[in-house]
Known about the structure:
This protein has helices at residues 45-53, 68-75, 97-103, 138-142, 145-150, 177-181, 210-219, 253-265, 299-309, 382-395, 401-411, 429-436, and strands spanning 6-9, 26-32, 83-85, 90-95, 109-114, 119-122, 135-136, 159-164, 185-190, 221-222, 227-228, 236-241, 270-273, 276-277, 314-318, 341-346, 370-373, 445-450, 456-460, 466-472, 478-485, 490-494, 501-505, 510-515. The chain is α/β, with parallel strands linked by helices. It folds into three domains: 16-114, no CATH class; 119-436, Rossmann fold, CATH 3.40.50.200; 445-515, Immunoglobulin-like (Sandwich). It has a seven-stranded parallel beta sheet with strand order 9-12-8-13-15-16-17, sandwiched between helices. A five-stranded mixed beta sheet has the order 18-24-23-20-21, with no helix packed on it. The protein has a four-stranded antiparallel beta sheet with strand order 3-4-2-5. Helix 7 (210-219) packs parallel to helix 10, helix 8 (253-265) runs parallel beside helix 9 (299-309) and helix 11 crosses helix 12. The protein starts with 5 loop residues before the first strand and ends with a strand.
Amino acid sequence: MTRIGRILTNIIFIGIFSLSANAQRAKYWLFFTDKDLNAKASISAKCIENRRNLGLSVSQVSDLPVNEKYISLLKGMDIQPLIKSKWLNAISANISPNQIDEIKKLSFIKRIIPIDSKLVLSKTNTRLKTEDDLRVDFVMKQIGIESFLQYGLDGKGVTIGVIDAGFFGANDTQTLKHLFDKNLILGVKDYVNPKKIDFFGERETSSDFHGTEVLNAITGRNTKENYQLGLATKANFYLARTDSGNKEFRGEEDNWMAAMEWMDSLGVRLINTSLGYAKGFSNPKESYSPEQMDGKTSVIAKAAQMAVEEKGMIVVVSAGNEGDDRSWQIISTPADVEGVIAVGATNELGMKMGYSSIGPEFLAYNKPNVSCYSLFGTSLAAPVITGFVSCLLQLNPRLSTKEIKNILEKSANLYPFANNFVGNGVPNGKKAIDLANNIETKNFTKTIEVSEGEKQVEIPLPTKDVVVVFNKKSPTQVISQDSFRSKYNFILLKRNPQVKQTTVICKEEVIEVIWK
């Protein structure tokens, strides 16, 4: 079996040592105090239509550009803006220590935040095939592709934005041929190398394949061989390359911001971003810590929440591949944001893959939100769910971001017994379609309370059933997971003083055992 891989990209700032402090520059966000309210916003008719349909404010201050007067003053100080963020009312720039001291004196500067960070991607590989009339990956069967096919849902009319590390070779990939034959790619932008002539044909780093694999998991289809990789085979796409890297590179959070704003201005509601930011600032004092994965500390977390709440965007994010890293383990940002859909990875049985990042205990809400099968990183789990969401939006374009999130969670196999390993579990296509159509659905779940004096409990089930068990120290926090095949027509659970609740996933139902 191919070994699970992942690319962990550490951000290392290599300065040119000089006697002059001005020779050492690092990248920062400079936040402004206000905007020119007489400036003109630049958003598309589609963007306006989306907001009206969702009952959102059409005119938003965050759509106004940053104040050009402030930018001119900074240029006079030899500070050249790299990215202008209207959402954050800020610019990014490379700044020396001496310049920071001068900038702090400016009345229009609200705050200064360093950018350099560590970007987490997952290594992608060729995936397994199953033999059927329509050949699909296991994950397509796991989420219920047959229901989407039955309803004729394929993402048609839905536009998806993919923000990633590169789309090298996408135009020569057989399973993506339909995107180019039918002109389904509406626009591309390379924020890493804006001068690149051939967006798909010029390879700069080993990560340039990453977005191509992600795109395959959203929309891949080979009509000649009747083989389908993703659900959104007729969706439209905007593609943005925001991060570049080999083994080590700088994660460009400001590029990510620019891509989000670009896509929002075009009226793109659904975003897939299979990346996340964790530790590794060039200045160790400014590095993210696990405690800062709280959905509100990082700049892109603030932006992601704005996208969800103010812009009506649906942001699907990979949970992260740090589950085996004892120094981290938890999700990265912006997967930590409450309003985004963070996606973890499971094995065939629905258990968390070892590498899949878990939700931190200190959050007031559960992460990840849902999970699905992926051998090669949460980077390939998130796009599966993105395709899933595109089908729901095709069914009902007026579904709000919150409604989409609720449908995903309520359709999943563990709902309402979500945990910090796999969230609500694996979404189900049939149940999600029913929920989107306001058809009542039933969860086959039950709760068993074990009194304090009882040391064990029998759970009846058919013989030879494979059972998955999550042992938890609280309603959502998992201590351990296990799976086994029952030898008899029951399984026996024994009391463990550390375990307060146990979730048992059987073939026909989910049972929550509460140890009193």
